[in-house]
Each structure stands twice: as C-alpha cells, then as structure tokens.
Amino acid sequence: MRVVKVTGFGGPEVLVPGEAPDPVAGPGQVVVEVSVAGVTFVETQIRRGVDRWHDRPALPYVPGGTVAGRVASAGEGVDPGWSGRRVIADVGESGGFAERAVAVVENLIPVPEGLGLPEAVALHTDGSTASGLVEGARIRPGEWVLVEAAGGGVGSLLVQLARAAGARVVGAARGARKLDLVRGLGAEAVVDYSEPGWTDRVREATDGAGPDVVFDGVGGEIGRAAFEVTADDGRFSVHGASSGEVTAIDPVRARRHGVEVIGIDQLFGFGPKMRHWAERVMSEAVAGRIRPVIGQTFPLERAADAHAAIESRSALGKTLLLI
After folding, report:
1. pLDDT tens digits for 184-208?
2. What is the pTM of this model?
3. What is the Cα–Cα distance from 41 to 268, expressed in whole angstroms?
4. For residue 80, is the peptide bond before it cis, meaning its omega torsion is within 30 degrees of 0?
5. From CA 43, how far away is CA 303, in angstroms rounded?
6. Partners of 86 in beta bridges
7. Which pairing describes strands 29-39 and 86-90: parallel, antiparallel, or unpaired?
8. Helix axes 274-286, 117-137, angle to 10 degrees
9. Domain annotation for the chain: domains and CATH numbers
C-alpha cells in the first residue's frame, strides 16, 4: 500500500512517499480503508524533532494519528457489525498517512449520517479540544472572549463555541484572509496580532476592560501581550505554543489582578472526555450549528506540502490529506 514516511528529523522534505505491507487486524483491532487523514501542527514539530511533549519516534515512521474511512476488516473478538461502517479512528501517534491503518476498536467513533468524512476529521480532535477548553473556561453569556489563532482549526471552532455560549468574541489572527474568515464565523471584532498596538484594539473592542476570557494557542510574545490585556478577575486559558514557547505567567502578577491561569497541563486531563466531545460537536455540525473550516486539502503524496502550509502560517482552518 501507499504510505508517506518521515525519513529523518528536519523540514517538510523528509516526508517521502513510499510503500509498506498491508496491515492485518489483530485481536480487538480493525483495519480502516483510509479516505482522509488529519494533519496537525504538533505533528510538524515532532517531524522537526523539536516537540517537547512527545517522545521522538524511531525512524523511519509513518505520521498521522487521526483518520476516517470505512472498516475493511476486523480481528478476533470484534463485533462484525463494524465492517463497512464509516468511522473516525484514533490510530495512535503514527500510522495515519497511509491507504490503510490499524486501530483498536475502542478508538473508533461512527460518523453520523449527514456528515462528510473530511468534516468529521476536521471536527474530531480540534472540536473535542475546543469543547474542553470552553468547558474549562466556564464562559458566561455576555462575556468578552479573545481567541488567538482564530483562523486555525481549533481557533475557528473556539470562535463558534464561544458565540454559542453567549459570548462576544474578539478573533485575533494574522492577515486579511484569516480575519475575513473569523469575522464570518461570528466574531464581533477582529485584530491582526502581527501589527503593532494590536492589544490596544482589543481593549477598544471590549470598552476598555479587556476580555474576560483569553484562549492562548500561540504563546511567546503574543501570549504574554494577551495576558496583559486580560480583564481583572478573568480567565487565561493556555492550550498551545505555535510560537515555539508556552506562555509563562508570573503567579504573583496573576493573583494581583485576580486572573485565573488555566495552564496547558489541562490538556492532559482531556483524554477520557474526548470521545463524548467529538460526538457532541459532530451532532452540532449535522444540525448546522457548527461549521468545520477545511482550508486546504492535499493528496497523500503531497504530505510535505501540507506540513509546509501549516508551518508557513498560511493555512486556514484544518489541513487534510485526501487518500
């Protein structure tokens, strides 16, 4: 079968098309005929060898942790009713950039009728993460919410979920294309955080008080600046570091302003609820209340281009491989 392998740690060029034997389902496992594979920013950092949150995989390896397709075969002990079903599968930390992938049956989620497989993948991990972040931040109707990286996969869903919770949203992103997208998703105000004085515009949008909730997926200078503009007695929720640096907040300063810092370690507790959140956001999408944003798709052989698009910050919403 066709696969894409990471042959060394480095730039997107280390993603090389190749061949591998067809996988065989073991006890409690299924083989999924892959139609769509998700691509994440974290996977680009693992490929570069700079991610601090995951062990380095042994080379060569096939990247990709989330796929969607039909169950092609099932191993011993698996209910035969799974055969032929459309599913999202969590295949672990590798193995998804391939025509077929093995998954444990407990890691399958049926895709509801009325939802396409690309949309399901776009919602699965990002939608679950966004749901957990919104739940943890305890958004109240009428509050102002600042979403960093609002044009990305998680950010675009955070905008919609915050709006659904009754919040007024400021979407922060880089460039006119992303700002137009975020405005179309329901953000009441948008700011370009690549421009000087962007936090002044956040204050202006929030009538001088600053946002009650900040979702920080960027970190670095942007994350620190966003913390400084957070309203007194607000919540500052950290979930990413696309800048390469997790936002470090002085706890004394946070206490002085009554700001609750919800650290990036919150993500470690999301696991048991991810399935529930994924099923919920897919149902919301079928009902038309949430729209996953798929900004760009690539064939399997162009996985390197997909990684390059994400790393260049040019990607809108979710990036997918269509196989």
Report:
1. 999 999 999 999 999 999 999 999 9
2. 0.91
3. 17
4. no
5. 12
6. 70
7. unpaired
8. 120
9. 2-110+293-322 (3.90.180.10), 129-269 (3.40.50.720)
